[in-house]
Amino acid sequence: MARTLFDKIWDDHVVERLPDGTCILYIDRHLLHEVTSPQAFEGLRMSGRRLRRPDATVAVVDHNVPTSDRSLPIEEPESRLQIETLEKNVAEFGVPYFKLRSKDQGIVHVVGPEQGISLPGMTIVCGDSHTSTHGAMGALAFGIGTSEVEHVMATQTLLQKPAKNMRITVSGQVGPGVTAKDIMLAIIGKIGTAGGTGHVMEFAGDAIRALDMAGRMTLCNMSIEAGARAGLVAPDETTFAYVEGRRFAPKGEDFEKACAYWRTLASDEGAVFDTEVTLDAAEIQPNLTWGTSPEDVIAIDGIVPDPAQFNDPARARQVQRMLDYMGLEAGQKIAGTRIDVAFIGSCTNSRIEDLRSAAAIAKGRHVAPGVRAMVVPGSGHVKAAAEAEGLDAIFREAGFEWREAGCSMCLGMNPDKLTSGQRCASTSNRNFEGRQGPGGRTHLCSPAMAAAAAVSGCFVDVREMA
Amino acid sequence: MMDKFTTLTAIAAPMPVENIDTDQIIPARFLKTIQRSGLGKNAFAAQRYNDDGSEKPDFVLNREPYRKAEILITLDNLGCGSSREHAPWALLDFGIRCVIAPSFADIFFNNCFKNGILPIRLPREICESLMEDAQMGANARITIDLENQLVQRPDGSTIPFEVDSFRKHMLIEGLDDIGQTLQHDSAIQSFEQKRQRDESWRPTIVMETVS
């Protein structure tokens, strides 16, 4: 029977199928960070259980690390405690660990692919919903809660039921100035934040094939924002070229064997998907969000919706509430809306390709008066690569802050936060109320759009700045 | 070990809102804990407290009798966003043992079961009726009968609900998943041995020192 990419990875990891259909699913890679692991390690310790496979586990600090000068101690006592707790735990249980002051440190979802830890065909989990990012490798990767983190630590498996299959086909090619972020915002805008619930979402079509690995990671990263359990892109020559030579990837003959296996994973001709969605790439514009849910998407030439246009009174109330929170008027043009902050970073958009695309806009321009613009590379290696290309100089000369790797302003758990009422052009993944700091107003967009807003002082169509 | 869940008769708090995300349930700035307990006081912090820390009197969980609510009823897509288990921990620490909504985000739905909270999916019209019941205040106690899979309304009428049989069993017995899975340890071991034998190209992560 024809199977999908998801079906194949799933079948290759089923240890045992229980009578009610629940599967004991083997986990190839378990990524840990400081926020969702302490209670799991504590549980392991209290039950006298061992960490089953330290050689399939990697830890890194990212969520609450400051992105300022790394030679200084961490001021926030609670953040310091979480980081120290992780360091104590990895030492006790023998977990490979990229420490704060290492070039290998970075956002866990940037580090995994970059180090060759995340590979095609694998099952990959982490106590973080954006684990879906690693699906770009052609791996089944998803976020889990802390109870499940402990479950994987103790058993190297999870109890799971298979998801439904969804395929999102983006046909044709996008126009200039339109990025993977714009494609994903278009998808979420179309199907909504619960559109993918219960499904694993495979991205297909010419526009997806044409994306580099960074773009595919952006897509899969935000598949959780569409409610999907995971996102997937079938591994192809782009993937293999990316993987080859990375630190923990198979080498030599092993790499050839691995590629031979990975080539078998793509969805079979005739495989049946429970849900199919199609988009025409040529119709996708540079997009951004106007509200406080990632589905509140409009094109840069669009207007902010009016609550009166919604028949459902609950929805109309919600739209009004979002407009009030965001400080926007119904019917206003989104272009021209002034911003206070531009944030380029996060597990969605902090890879070298993202920084190049922002730098291309920043080059020879300057951040508008009154705007704070920050660039936060996804890892120490991304930072070093950017510096080797001179991107840091472009950003600095243009008035952008050039910072150390971490989650930074994506989630308001470290010193990088919005203050109440500040409006931010952000390359991150969630525009929830208070996500970037209490009262902060987030507009999700691509790195190029964020850079364009930074130098213009307001949202502008990046295509007019080329 | 979790508390067993059999039946629950309790006050239900109505929150007629869609897409209540995990950042609303517990904002990220409160996640800097290394414990599971103590998050209840900051559940729904942005909606519950003013900047000076005083309570916002209009918010449902600040009003009587809902301060003692053990059931929460909302509209679609409850728990969307992060995988943080701090969200169910915060609800549990507040006292919530059952959440009812037309639909849930997947990870949150799972995380609830693992912490002894029963998530119940019911059609939107029924959720709206239950919210009307809940508006009647202290006299409007709702009973959740997990064994028989029934929600009993204050007027005595009942509404059946679906629940995964495995999850139901684990909740009723207060069982922990890990012990259950480790009963299959020999199957896990043979899976690993077969892998090592047939697919030796699969790399492991070995680092000489902390990097």
From TrEMBL, chain A:
<comment type="pathway">
    <text>Amino-acid biosynthesis; L-leucine biosynthesis; L-leucine from 3-methyl-2-oxobutanoate: step 2/4.</text>
</comment>
<feature type="binding site">
    <location>
        <position position="407"/>
    </location>
    <ligand>
        <name>[4Fe-4S] cluster</name>
    </ligand>
</feature>
<dbReference type="InterPro" id="IPR050067">
    <property type="entry name" value="IPM_dehydratase_rel_enz"/>
</dbReference>
<dbReference type="InterPro" id="IPR018136">
    <property type="entry name" value="Aconitase_4Fe-4S_BS"/>
</dbReference>
<dbReference type="InterPro" id="IPR036008">
    <property type="entry name" value="Aconitase_4Fe-4S_dom"/>
</dbReference>
<keyword id="KW-0004">4Fe-4S</keyword>
<dbReference type="InterPro" id="IPR001030">
    <property type="entry name" value="Acoase/IPM_deHydtase_lsu_aba"/>
</dbReference>
<keyword id="KW-0456">Lyase</keyword>
<keyword id="KW-0100">Branched-chain amino acid biosynthesis</keyword>
<keyword id="KW-0408">Iron</keyword>
<keyword id="KW-0411">Iron-sulfur</keyword>
<dbReference type="InterPro" id="IPR015931">
    <property type="entry name" value="Acnase/IPM_dHydase_lsu_aba_1/3"/>
</dbReference>
<keyword id="KW-0479">Metal-binding</keyword>
<comment type="similarity">
    <text>Belongs to the aconitase/IPM isomerase family. LeuC type 1 subfamily.</text>
</comment>
<comment type="function">
    <text>Catalyzes the isomerization between 2-isopropylmalate and 3-isopropylmalate, via the formation of 2-isopropylmaleate.</text>
</comment>
<protein>
    <recommendedName>
        <fullName>3-isopropylmalate dehydratase large subunit</fullName>
        <ecNumber>4.2.1.33</ecNumber>
    </recommendedName>
</protein>
<feature type="binding site">
    <location>
        <position position="347"/>
    </location>
    <ligand>
        <name>[4Fe-4S] cluster</name>
    </ligand>
</feature>
<dbReference type="InterPro" id="IPR004430">
    <property type="entry name" value="3-IsopropMal_deHydase_lsu"/>
</dbReference>
<dbReference type="InterPro" id="IPR033941">
    <property type="entry name" value="IPMI_cat"/>
</dbReference>
<feature type="domain" description="Aconitase/3-isopropylmalate dehydratase large subunit alpha/beta/alpha">
    <location>
        <begin position="7"/>
        <end position="457"/>
    </location>
</feature>
<dbReference type="Pfam" id="PF00330">
    <property type="entry name" value="Aconitase"/>
</dbReference>
<keyword id="KW-0432">Leucine biosynthesis</keyword>
<feature type="binding site">
    <location>
        <position position="410"/>
    </location>
    <ligand>
        <name>[4Fe-4S] cluster</name>
    </ligand>
</feature>
<comment type="subunit">
    <text>Heterodimer of LeuC and LeuD.</text>
</comment>
<keyword id="KW-0028">Amino-acid biosynthesis</keyword>
